[in-house]
Amino acid sequence: MKRPEGPVVVFGAFAYFRAMLRKERYRKLIAYFAQHQPDPETELQYRNPFELLVAVVLSAQCTDKRVNMVTPALFEKFPSPAHLAASEFEELFPYIRSISYPNNKTKHLLGLGKMLTEVFNGEVPQTVEELQKLPGVGRKTANVIVSVLFDQPAMAVDTHVFRVSKRLGLVNQNAKTPLEVEKTLVSYLPKSLIPKAHHWLILHGRYVCLARKPKCKECPICEFCRYFEKNFAPKHSDSPSAPLN
Ligand code: SF4
Fold this sequence. Notes:
The protein is an all-alpha fold. It has two domains: 49-150, Orthogonal Bundle (Endonuclease III, domain 1), CATH 1.10.340.30; 153-245, Endonuclease Iii, domain 2, CATH 1.10.1670. The protein has twelve helices and no strands. Helix 2 (49-58) runs antiparallel to helix 8 (139-150). The longest helix has 31 residues, at 6-36. The radius of gyration is 22 Å and the shape is elongated. The model is unreliable at 1-11 and 236-245 (pLDDT under 50). The structure holds iron/sulfur cluster (SF4). Iron/sulfur cluster binds next to helix 9 and helix 12.
């Protein structure tokens, strides 16, 4: 029996239309941020690759602001992987006591110092695979390091990137994992812009597209945001500011 073609054609057209919409959102996102934030940077303070690696490990589930408060004294006392490798839990712990999960992070940093010293000759490795072998370093941290330090096209998906990408409509609304979001973002963004886009999305999530109360009414990119369209864009008979839901 011949398969009916109508719905397939309609669905195909819909998928095509949706992909076009998404491409358009990416185009507008890039155009806006390239103009208004051409050189975004991490807000973590560091002077060399080792310090950035330590700061990023400390920043998991913690704010950059809090990390920046403890790192000056920490780096003064432990200026290299060898210094960390040679220290004890009781020596390191007080320096990061005010950071979230200080017990685990102390153990991670001690192990990280040891591995950097013994396996990587005291240098921060340059690949995601090698970085992920270090204690306390998952895919997100490894992506941040290769992107910020080595300008590689890696997209680190933290809670801000995850949330903002979904709200803007850059990725599938039912994307469940950071890896899913990472793959979609990487497939749409030009390689050369991936490191910058990472910062654009993080900073937008940190200061405008807040988790609990996004500042939609003052958001400069609401014009191409899916969430805004859905919740605030006027329909023919509605008043301009009526939420639609
Ligand atoms: S319009 Fe609202 S939801 Fe969309 S990016 Fe801006 S703050 Fe986030």
